[in-house]
Fold these 2 entries.
Entry 1:
Amino acid sequence: MKYRYPFAAIGHRLEPEIFDILKEANNSMSTYTQGIYQSKFESDFQNKFGLKNCIAVSNAVSGIELIASELDLKDGDEIICPAHTYCASAYPFLKVGAKIIWSDINPKTWLSGPDDYREKITNKTKAIIVVHLYGLASEAYKIYDELKERGIIIIEDCAQSIGSKYNGIPVGSYADFSIFSFQSHKNISTLGEGGMIAVTDENSFARMIKQRHNGHTSYNIFPDQHWKPAMSDVRKCYSSSYPSNFCMNEFQAIVGSYLLSKIDEIISIRKKKWNYARNLLSNQPNLLLQEIPENSTSSYHLLPIRINIDISLIDEVFDKMKSFGIQCAKQYQPLYRYNLFDESASDETYNKKLLKNTDLFYDQMISLPFHESLSINDIEYMINSLIKSIQALS
Ligand SMILES: Cc1ncc(COP(=O)(O)O)c(C=O)c1O
């Protein structure tokens, strides 16, 4: 079925002028990869959000894989991660042998916050993953000092929250590691895929930047004879993990810098539409909105809504929305219900209940299509359709 409003649409459609910029750059470029535009994008990103040591990568999950390798986990090391997030927040840690401990969400903000993390900390906790889901900055910041004192590594998944702030400070800047995504659906995209990581520790940065590009590390033995050997030592920075190629290309980096210069405007356009939708939804019986804590701001990435009705009726709402031509999504199935994370989850009807707020929110949530090209009329149509769908419930 072709939807009038498909869920996954381009977050921000590229302006025609960018293609002239790319064409011009093509005439003078000396390489299509690992060149001056990548360095420029990294320093632009760093400066814009007050981050340290940025590394451009092919997508956010490749960045998370680099971070996971850098943790150098030992047997039994635990990583705390919200079960209510996209799978990519967590699975790279499985690949390096972590034991993942799932945190619940706050029933009002729908994010894991200070209490949810604190409850799961043990003396085996190596790191926590803070996810600013839907674009909203998590309040986990309130326990960062405590985490740092205990030597717990803080990783922020800012894939959906570029430009969000906590206490006026952009997300990602207080963490040991943070990652951003420029996938097609995100607020800005580097031609469909792309990501950025920020790394606080200089030694980690020095290793990770090499690990991004096949682990290349120069030999010092024949400094004047670069051809001896032509390829550098791919195993020099890590003894136990394998390198990868996680590079983005120069055209993506040009687009990245260009969109970054427009990010405030992009966020403010989204904000207007998001507020408009939320105003229409406020005062609707049975519809609950994500609560925005006093010190948090959002990048207005997605528009999740909780429908406070008997969960046996939720599928009917999705069906009705489908009849109005609107493709809604259910985000995010608790990760402990996936076979990837729990081998007993062998079929699609597996319905493990583990965390009260996570389970209830997933059962009752609906995510409407939300992207920049929706007009105010489109938004009005979608919200009215949702209200009608609920009123028509049998
Ligand atoms: C919360 C979260 N983390 C990580 C990712 C992975 O991003 P990418 O597609 O750039 O690898 C996504 C992508 O949707 C996401 O939403």
Entry 2:
Amino acid sequence: MPDDSPSAPPPRDKPLCDLSDLALFGARPLFDAPRHVNRPQAPDRAVFDALLDQVWDRRWFTNDGPLVQELERRLCDYLDVPHCVLTSNATAALDLVIHALGLEGEVLLPSFTFISTAHLLHLRKLTPVFCEVGADMMLDPADCAARMTTRTAAIIATHVWGSPCDIDALQALCDDRGIALLLDAAHAFGGRYKGRRLGGFGRAEVFSLHATKAFHACEGGLVTTSDADLAARLRLTRNFGFSGPDRVECAGVNAKMSELHAAMGLANLAGFEDSRAAAMRIHGAYARGLEGLPGLRLKSPPPEEENNHHYLVTEIDAAGFGMDRDALLALLTAENVWARRYFHPGGHRSPPHLGHSPALPRTEALCARVLLLPAGAAATSEEVAQICRLIRFAAARAPEIRAAAGA
Ligand SMILES: Cc1ncc(COP(=O)(O)O)c(C=O)c1O
């Protein structure tokens, strides 16, 4: 709740002039409530309600219901892939794929990705082999090649920030060894690689439909593949191995998507291109607001990628900006701008993987400078203008802020 009592500091409707105007030094925060990096997108309520009415009328809430089937069909059309299998979340989806392919031994993956993949490998008694990033912040194929052994069973690469990783180079490496390339497309809904929609590459791609993603179903996961046998296996194993009411084909778990989640997915899919356009406008507002600021690099995907623009990624160079990334993060957080370090500190430096991997200097340097800012379709251009003014002020007065914060 905003504090409007007489003793509360005055609201921040005046321009930033002095250090005492910053929340770090006692002023009222710029925003009364946190601004998150990826505030979830809420679909058109009427579209969602109409879908829920169908679910209520049918009393069919889960177990491969009509809305799940419809969402799978629509996703096949949109992503131009033969098989879409929806699940309860992306981590469960990847687990089903790993199990279905019978992977054993070592799996190469980037350290600069969400921790879920490394954890999953660990829990499945596979060995995660963390690899370096390239200049594009993505898994470096040359580093992968250097870390391959006779025990390497697969590569799981991530399309970080919705941009495609170097699929051709990674696929060539996998083809040489006869192993599977799996792609973590959690960030990448709607993106393209060489003109083709992401979702159609590797042995399978896995999307997250978590609420913070560009396209979401509150919670959910999606496997896309051209392998009909793999898709059939996933359909069985997401539902305890059942192929009929009392017929079990194999071991399986409960990784099903419910009808309520599918309703959210369908409603969001209908509005996805509008959301993408809104997120792109937000990206443009940041590009203008931060233009020319020394020591701050904004990552801008090329137009042919058709990136979903859900992530606003900056890199802070302490020498050029005047303060390091963590000092800027502290300043922003105090103002209720909940910027985030990603994927800090890197998978290879997080328990339980810590100590089982050599140092990865390029990944570690990247983890020290990446800062994500509140963005996506649910952000507003006014918020962006205020955040950019704040960041410009921080850069202009960096030496004084550093000294005062130290004191
Ligand atoms: C790159 C990446 N991979 C995997 C996941 C896991 O997705 P889920 O939460 O749907 O299991 C996430 C979630 O944030 C992610 O960002």
